[in-house]
Amino acid sequence: MKILVTGGSGLIGSAIVRRLLDLEHEVSVFDIKKSKYQDCNFFEGNITDSERIKDVVRDHEIVIHLAATLGVINTETNPVKTLDTNMGGTRNVLEACKIHGVKKIIFSSSSEVYGEPTKIPINELDKPIPITTYGIAKFAAEEYIKAYSRNFNLDYTIFRLFNVYGDEQAVDWVLPEFVNKAIQNQDIIIHGDGSQTRCFCHVSDVANAFTLALEKAEGEIINVGNNSEPISIKDLALKIIKLTNSKSELKFQSFEESKRNRNEIMKRMPDIKKAQMKLDYKPTISLEDGIMKVVNKINST
Ligand SMILES: NC(=O)c1ccc[n+]([C@@H]2O[C@H](COP(=O)([O-])OP(=O)(O)OC[C@H]3O[C@@H](n4cnc5c(N)ncnc54)[C@H](O)[C@@H]3O)[C@@H](O)[C@H]2O)c1
Fold first, then answer.
1. Is there a contact between 2 and 21 (Cβ–Cβ < 8 Å)?
2. What is the distance in A from the centroid of ligand 1 to the CA of 247?
3. Beta-carbon count within 10 A of 167 CB
4. For 112-157, what is each residue's pLDDT tens digit?
5. Which of 84, 105, 108, 134 for mutating ligand 1's site (highest number of atoms within 8 Å of CB)?
6. N or C, where is the chain less crowded by C-beta within 10 Å?
7. How confident is the model over 145-158, as pLDDT tens digits?
């Protein structure tokens, strides 16, 4: 198939593109940043540029739409840019899909659409109550996709992703940041008391879900994550210290002192039964193995 991946140069995009190329699809990347692969077509551009994206989408059967403004500090300090890129950009991508008769869009939404969950694990039927600009923009993008699908014969699968990490992730994301500090025996800063709980999912498992959705799960919203090892942020830091034989110490910083002066979501854990049922999706990388991949990558650079 001819598949276009917006945001295909990023963490999740690169993993998906590699997987698609290995499956012998013809893959194009649309991104503001160059792709690291030589064996895909690369189109430089911004999804806020409606004419450019219209040109590039032509001739593709499937669009995997990942390009977005993300990161807690980045999105909260740039709310207008977040809305422009994540809502406006998605609308541009959809308009291009409509004009060129794209068969299907597969979209990376986020667990942030749920806001602070009222129960754990979070199920797709739970009411989305996003509380951040990023979460609101992702939820609006989902609604745009559903509206285009209803009106213009475009299939979709929307994935709500839960805390993805990987060896290529920038070290300002929590898991690689802790690994980076631990390797250098530096203090690890914990925001709040560290009791906030997350389920971390390795990027290769996420890439697998996207490839499984090429021909399945039409018109579905599906949680994707790894719920087998929920862990508090404090315990994550302690686990990383142990795995790296580090002398790092934990330092606690209030949310007010940190730049993350917003309501931290305290518990996040996906119910992934729907992904298992519709896609036969099963996360395979344990947290320990995933952490060691990040350790090895940081050690080798
Ligand atoms: N990483 C996570 O934990 C997580 C969780 C939930 C949802 N998501 C979503 O998954 C997608 C991919 O995330 P990621 O972790 O790979 O992030 P990433 O930052 O590594 O990748 C995003 C890519 O999009 C590109 N991009 C950004 N703005 C663009 C624009 N305006 N036009 C064109 N390209 C642009 C960037 O250059 C980058 O290559 C995003 O939509 C994100 O919101 C990620």
1. no
2. 33
3. 21
4. 999 989 899 999 999 999 999 999 999 999 999 999 999 999 999 9
5. 108
6. C
7. 999 999 999 999 99
Residues forming beta bridges with residue 190, ordered by sequence position? 252
* Per-residue burial over 273-300, b = 16 or more CB atoms within 10 Å of its CB, e = otherwise: ebbeebbebebebebeebbebbbeebee
Q: Is the CB of 67 under 6 A from ligand 1?
A: yes
| Cβ-proximal residues to 181 (8 Å cutoff; 6+ apart), any chain | 187, 188, 248
Distance, CA 226 to ligand 1 centroid (Å)? 19
* Six token digits for residue 174: 């929590």
pTM comes to 0.97
Instruction: Give yes or no: 144 in active site.
Output: no
Categorize the per-residue pLDDT at 259 as very low, low, confident or very high, splitting at 50, 70 and 90: low
Question: 150: how many CB neighbours lie within 10 A of its CB?
Answer: 10
Contacting residues for 300 by C-beta, under 8 A, at least 6 apart: none
Q: What is residue 96's predicted lDDT score, i.e. its pLDDT?
A: 98
Instruction: From 4, 19, 31, 91, give the residue whose CB has the most ligand 1 atoms within 8 Å, as the site to mutate.
Output: 31
| Stated length of the chain | 301
List of long-range contacts for 255-262, beta carbons under 8 Å, 24+ apart: 255/191, 255/192, 258/189, 258/191, 259/73, 260/72, 260/73, 260/76, 260/191, 262/72, 262/76, 262/131, 262/132
Cα→Cα distances 18→28, 29, 285, Å: 11, 11, 18
Residue 52 CB less than 6 A away from ligand 1: no
Pick the CATH number of 2-166+200-225+269-283 from 3.40.50.720, 2.60.120.10, 3.90.1170.20, 1.10.1760.20: 3.40.50.720
The C-alpha atoms of residue 163 and residue 279 are separated, in whole angstroms, by: 20
